[in-house]
Design a protein that fits this description.
The chain is α+β, with helices and mostly antiparallel strands. The chain has three helices and eight strands. A hairpin with a 5-residue loop joins strand 6 and strand 7.
């Protein structure tokens, strides 16, 4: 199991690179450990940067179980219909806030066996994917919160310590 990196660690702000050799031993060994960490930490999703690897891979819990998505990318977002949902993040313990995200998205990704998939997501799955794909781009959910539910005092202190506002 991996340790979760917490803000203000600068690794969380780095953009991740695409995985070129999906079948490599390193990637294939990384996959089950990422899933195990997400499950044991009770997360709905987990991105590789949150465990110290700046590679484009995320784990997500869905109705059908836990899965990994390699080199995921959002192809299309419905900018006209949005959900407002409370989000939290394993890299920000105790912090929760409201975020507005497109309700429906289309994504492409590679499965661990190297097959390319394109799928439409909506509802909670859409939110989780957008959150985790943001991590791969160095974007954090605190960048998108418009109203804090819990932990606003914690994040203000963390930002000060990080040299931000």
């Amino acid at each position: 199991m991996f340790e979760i990196i917490e803000y203000p660690n600068k690794l969380l702000r780095k953009k991740s690179g695409n995985i070129k050799q999906i079948s490599s031993k390193e990637v294939q060994q990384f996959i089950p450990e990422l899933i195990e960490t997400m499950i044991k930490k009770d997360g709905l999703g987990l991105a590789a940067p949150q465990v110290g690897k700046n590679i484009n891979i995320i784990a997500v819990r869905m109705d059908s179980g836990s899965h990994v998505f390699i080199n995921p990318a959002i192809l299309w977002k419905n900018w006209f219909k949005k959900n407002v949902i409370e989000e939290g993040c394993l890299s920000f313990p105790g912090i929760f806030g409201l975020i507005k995200r497109p309700r429906t998205i289309w994504i492409k990704y590679y499965q661990p066996d190297g097959k390319l998939k394109i799928v439409k997501l909506s509802g909670l799955s859409s939110v989780i994917f957008q959150h985790e794909i943001d991590h791969l781009r160095g974007i954090l959910f605190i960048d998108k919160i418009f109203k804090y539910i819990k932990g606003e005092d914690i994040i203000k202190e963390l930002k000060q310590n990080a040299g931000k506002e």
